Batch of 2 targets.
Target 1
Amino acid sequence: MPRVITNLCQREGSCRIVCPVECIIPGTPVDDWPTYVIDPDTCIDCGACEPECPYSAIYPSDEVPSAYQARGGEILCAKAGTAGFNDTYTDVDHDGEEIVMPATRVLAEGEIVDLTPSIELNRAFFTEGPGYAAL
Ligand code: SF4
Ligand code: SF4
């Protein structure tokens, strides 16, 4: 079972540094692929990336919550233009590079969010998206 990066990712890059098989890359273009993504065919499920994530965005693929209950304050991202995702998130990543996420919103305490679509998004990036050429 590979790990999956969910839309709680804020693209700061810590997971990519520790992956022993280099199967984590930033999704690009960010408008369409706002999170970092894990190639499920290359991931050896070692678990090293999961504790590195400061936003607890990484799960084993069979444990991605369909009803994630927000603590409040988490930033959820989506494709650019998604209704309700009206905030632009900016920061600096692990390497000092600027992060710009054009479609985000802040979760309210107790809000329930289905994170399982991320399973397919990670896979799709490497099969239908630009990830195949990127690896
Ligand atoms: S579980 Fe291990 S192999 Fe898979 S993405 Fe994370 S660090 Fe890489
Ligand atoms: S460590 Fe977490 S927030 Fe940082 S790039 Fe990886 S999944 Fe995204």
Target 2
Amino acid sequence: MQHCRICDSASLFSFQRGNIPLLRCSQCDTVQLATIPDEHELLQYYADEYELLDQSNKELTTTEIRRWSRLPEQLSLIHDIKKRKSPPAVIADIGCDRGYFLDEARRYGYTVFGIEPSNHAQKYTNAINIPVFSSLQESSLRPDIVVMWHSLEHTTNPLSTLQEIHSHLTDEGIIAIRVPDFGCVWSRLLQQHWVWFQPQNHNFHFSRTSLNFLLTKAGFHPYFVRSQRPNSFITMRSTRIAQSTFTRYTGTSLTAKEYLSPWYQFLTGIELFAIAKKI
Ligand SMILES: [Zn+2]
């Protein structure tokens, strides 16, 4: 019999989104894929294949548009973190992708490093001189702050991931997490068409209840777990400016899909945001 990977309860209820079989735990409210891939296979997949952007000659432009458009979001996150722990402090970003967040955080005086299995993303972080490792153990620095921006749902065991982070954090260290809000109105309305329902990458889906439960179980005290739209009107304006600036000066044009997909995400992408303290 299958057990919940978060609370170990056997009372799991099967349901489907589209043709994807899922299990919801009646104890802690976590939703998981009925079949979670093997961890080794998954790491190989992220190292070799998983890329947030396609490999085309436009890649630098699309990467830079994405970085620019997300600046307001990064600044807002840095200010939320600064309220709890101001620099000097060490930040580790698990699933740092191309290091956009760390790149900004270091300008505020934080010492930064990332954890990222994707070889492709690591090439980018090397170029901008952000140290990236494949696990927390590899770094000689102990983080005071760990951030996970839309990466916890990709793991095969969120509880053991958070427990491992707990053991690496310095005393009174903090963790900041953002994950898709599976319980939000857009998720319920759009079902398998929701922008962040990605069963090929997301093994777990969280609600406010389950994220709160998970953090507490892993030894953290949540300051807050809230549902939010990460992309404010400022972000939308910033995307618009980035799109028109880059297409004008680099001579690159965007396809209708490339132009519209950020807007679809702004509209329907609701996430959970939590900051919690190690106890
Ligand atoms: Zn459970």
